[in-house]
Design a protein that fits this description.
With about 350 residues, the protein is mostly helical. It is built from 15 helices and six strands. Helices cover about 50% and strands about 5% of the residues. A hairpin with a 2-residue loop joins β1 and β2.
């Protein structure tokens, strides 16, 4: 973990966060939602865009909703170890059209804990909330010279979500994918030119301005499961399976492989023992073939098993070493290091 993330609560870094909190991520001319413009003109009773049940006038209700809708709390807690699950860079986010190339379906999830978390055959993406497209929302609610910790968390989560969409939607093809009716990641009324103007500077948002989770891009769900087991003593990061059948189905393949290898080994050993009875008879050639066949079967089974185990170990160690080196290169350089 970089020193910036480890010391995010230091006075110097907190001052940087507060200074950043005084600037909205886009200009009023480029905002894509105008529902709250009346709020800035003196009407404090407007509802949060796309959330008619949430009133802007009820500060506590609004704050609770925004925290639950934007802040990936558990991933922020896991941030110092997330380099074990992903490349330590926020640009590790493939464009939307690229997921089809890798055989992954885009699954919509409103839970910020699942945004850009991927598993075999799918990746979860949170739609971009409409209220984040409003300049008035940022200026009237989130921009404060003395922001509370809650507002800082909400702002950093919102900034991180906006920055992640800069990398999700890089081409017009990605924009069309995002507007597909079954996804609706972006409002259907937007044009490609409007989006490009709106998101033009999101790639310049610094890590100090976003939630610790957004210092990373996409995260692998299976690795998150192991990470929470080791660091939080929880069984899973997120319960995705619908029932016991789906939970145990993932073990069928490995178990069948183990049983298959054991069956071959035991059969080969049984043949080797049985052919010993033919040694004193006339079937010497058949005895020799059976004996060598059992030995070769044992060697092949052992070789395949060792190869798979060694491949897994080498691949895991290679990814771990690569992540550690990338983490080392990403850490801030002190004057002693640069001298």
């Amino acid at each position: 973990m970089t020193e910036t993330m480890l010391n995010e609560n230091s006075p110097r870094n907190k001052a940087h966060r507060i200074a950043a909190a005084l600037q909205p991520p886009f200009t009023k001319e480029r905002q894509l939602n105008h529902e709250l413009d009346s709020y800035s003109n003196g009407d404090p009773h407007g509802a949060l865009p796309s959330q008619p049940r949430i009133s802007m006038a009820l500060a506590e209700q609004l704050s609770d909703f925004l925290l639950s809708d934007l802040s990936p709390t558990k991933l922020n807690q896991l941030a110092p170890q997330l380099w074990l699950c992903s490349a330590p860079t926020h640009t590790n986010i493939p464009p939307l059209h690229n997921h089809a190339v890798h055989g992954r379906n885009i699954v919509v999830s409103e839970d910020p804990a699942l945004h850009l978390v991927w598993d075999t055959g799918r990746i979860f993406i949170k739609p971009l909330p409409t209220y984040l497209l409003s300049h008035t929302f940022w200026t009237q609610y989130l921009l404060d010279s003395t922001p509370s910790n809650e507002k800082l968390c909400i702002r950093e989560a919102g900034m991180g979500l906006l920055r992640s969409y800069f990398y999700c939607i890089r081409h017009e093809t990605d924009f069309r994918v995002a507007q597909q009716p079954h996804l609706s990641l972006l409002p259907m009324s937007l044009t490609w030119q409007q989006w490009c103007d709106f998101a033009a500077t999101f790639n310049t948002i610094e890590n100090a301005e976003v939630a610790p989770r957004y210092h990373y891009g996409k995260l692998q769900l299976s690795r998150l499961h192991w990470l929470v087991r080791m660091s939080m003593w929880e069984l899973n990061y997120y319960y995705i399976d619908g029932g016991y059948g789906e939970s145990f189905a993932r073990y069928y393949g490995p178990l069948l492989f183990v049983f298959g290898i054991l069956s071959v080994l035991l059969s080969a050993m049984q043949v080797g023992m049985a052919v010993e009875q033919l040694q004193s008879r006339d079937w010497v050639a058949f005895w020799s073939v059976c004996r060598w066949f059992s030995v070769i079967s044992l060697l092949i089974s052992a070789t395949v098993t060792l190869y798979l185990v060694a491949s897994f170990v080498v691949k895991s160690m290679d990814e771990l070493i690569w992540a550690a080196r990338a983490q080392y290169r990403a850490r801030p350089r002190s004057r002693t290091d640069t001298a």
